[in-house]
Amino acid sequence: MSCNTTYTFTPGTYSGALAPAALTNDEPGTAIGLTVNPSPCTGFCGTYYSSKNATASAGIATCGAGTPGTPNDDVWFTFVASTSQQTITVRGGAGYNPVVQLFSDAGITPLNCVNATGAGLTETINATGLTPAATYYVRVYHETAGSSSTPTLGTTTAAAGAGDFSICVNEIVPPPANDDICGAVNLSVGTSCSATAGSTVNSTASAQAVCGGTADDDVWYSFTASTATDVITVQSGAGFNAHFQVWSSSDNTCTGTLTSVTCVNNTSTAGTETFTGTSFVPGNVYFIRIYHSASGTGTGAFTVCVTAAPPACIGNPTTPANGGTACEAVPVTLTWPAASGATSYNIVLDGGAPINQAGTSYNAGVLALGGHTWSVFPVNNAGAATGCNTWTFSVESQPVIGTISGPSALFTAQSGSFSETGGTGGTLQWQSATVTGGPYSNIATATGNPQNISFASPGTYYIVATRTVGGCTVVTSNELTVVVSVQGDTPCAPIALVVGSNWAILKCRCCD
What we know:
mainly beta, disordered C terminus, 6-stranded mixed β-sheet, single chain
């Protein structure tokens, strides 16, 4: 009876059984050829046969199974091996207990024989070491005498059993090459996602600890970190719910001590899973384990990629400040704050070629008078930042300090007018000290010329003026000494002596 065939049964009185169908594969020489399937059989139409009315083949090697049975109804099949590993599956019909024997020739050289189950169950031979393109023979028979323990309709004896069974040969699909960590597929790290298609079909569970889900179908990938913030993206296919785990290795190999970095399963079937690193070590190797979150493989389909981005630009420089100044004839050192994730910096000065610096400063040397431009482009293994700001500064002439003058005596809280003569360039700043020769401190808001200066406390003060331009060396003036007194406490100093004929008068300047 063929699969998907329609039969019409008419009620009535009938006698006798139908005539048995003639066997064509009772001997090795008339064996039926089987097609090798590329994957395990899931449909069985066209795979049903019978050993009913078969006779024992003479001169055949005995089955080596623990219970070899009685091969008085054996039938024969052949197949041409497509790979070195093939699976032979025989499903017994009701009451049929199949014994299956594999030969490398027409019944002389046995390779395997199984009789591990029972009536109505399945026997399987997983044959290995076969020679592709070579022909192999399969012998099938019912374990006990006759062809089945279930009589055919219209009979009452087991010897007249139906003898039905199904047989299928398929390739043994080996696990993928990256089934274990030491077979991990290496992924390149790019600035955009270059997806690598993967599958967990036929994969097996690995020995590493599971961080979540059911890792009975995991496959492995590896990558060499480009930046601390590399991004891993796994896109699940239809019918697949990706769960992935990232591992570091003590020696960057699959045999090193592994440490779980993260475990990711934030979406569901056909979703996108991502992880952005925070502490990947550039140059170190990391391993990615991917599996279907539920048991089994689902459809097994997914893609994976690892990307990295250049660091971000810097907002503002340190020195010179944007729009600031530097000094003539003095080497200019450009400095800037560190950019997160940067391993070096490209400096572009006045539109020239990029100059790579490992640190956050660059000695530009002595620059010409006038305006200058510069930019900093942070760099990592993913490349250099783009579109960063251009800053400006100007180199100005060295300042010239003049001569300062002003009162030598003041009362507390009394302002005295101090001035500088002959100075040019830069910014003028008045300073004071309580010890001759300094150290001097800036007098708050005292940058004018002339400049009113007062002191709140009595004492002797030493006044200087300075001029600076950008990073230039401070140019300091001559020093003035100013005695500050409390009003009314200090006698007037004599200023004139008028001599009469017989008297003298000491004339004083009033102290109020």
